[in-house]
Amino acid sequence: MKIFDHYYFYENRGLGSNSILIDASPKVIVDTGMNPRRLSKRMAVDGFHPEEIGMVVNTHSHIDHTAGNRFFRRRGAKLLTCIGEYLDLKDVCLKVISTPGHSPGSVCLYDEDNRVLISGDTILPYCVGRWDLPGGDLESLKRSVLKLSELKVDYLLPGHMYPLTNRKDILESMNAIMEMLGI
Ligand SMILES: [Zn+2]
Predict the structure, then answer these.
(1) Domain count, the chain
(2) In a domain, 182, yes or no
(3) Ligand 1: distance of its center to the CA of 50 in Å?
């Protein structure tokens, strides 16, 4: 489903994560989920094919986000494991924000020009990802949420559940999260 210029969101209601396709140069998939064949079929509806994907990025290393990586790597995509401060895709520039808490290496990707936040499992609509899995930490999560709350966001694309596509809902969601965590 097209969310906005350059951004396609594939919601997953099963075990795997959502996937986000960024139509830039190269084309990128953020989180490949657990069923790459099904994802490919859904991408095809929007005119994309797995061979066109040049890069795979994961918001964190949990298996429900990464199991599909191999499928895309076999078809030529590079896996970006060591992300710098920015992911510059020519048409789209994303800031890489370190957001530990759900897992130690979690990152969010923020497109400041278009006000898009790809939030992985750090923040979800009206809730946060679990912090009780190995490597999770509530205090780090609170700091990460606080950092994200300072961003201007019109499109929130989370790792599970559904996207939020207007600022009012995103603010409401963020306020509910901060209240829940006592921030
Ligand atoms: Zn996770």
Answers:
(1) 1
(2) no
(3) 24
Q: If you measure from the C-alpha of residue 68 to the centroid of ligand 1, how many angstroms do you get, rounded to a whole number? A: 14
Residue 166: count other Cβ atoms within 10 Å of its Cβ: 11
137 C-beta neighbours (distance < 10 Å), count: 16
CA atoms within 13 Å, Cβ hemisphere of 87: 29
Model confidence at 180, pLDDT cuts 50, 70, 90, reads very high
Cβ atoms within 10 Å of 156's Cβ, excluding its own: 26
Q: Which domain range does residue 113 map to?
A: 2-177
Residue 102 CA, ligand 1 centroid: distance in Å: 7
CATH code for position 162? 3.60.15.10
- What is the H or E stretch that residue 45 is in? helix 36-45
Q: For residue 17, how far is its CA from the centre of ligand 1 (angstroms)? A: 8
List, as ranges, residues with CB under 5 A of the ion ligand 1: 62, 121
Q: How far is the CA of 16 from the centre of ligand 1 (A)?
A: 10
170 is a domain residue: yes
- Could you read off the pLDDT of 68-126 as tens digits, one per residue? 999 999 999 999 987 789 999 998 999 999 999 999 999 999 999 999 999 999 999 99
144 pLDDT above the threshold of 80: yes
Look at residue 84 in the predicted model and tell me its pLDDT. Answer: 81
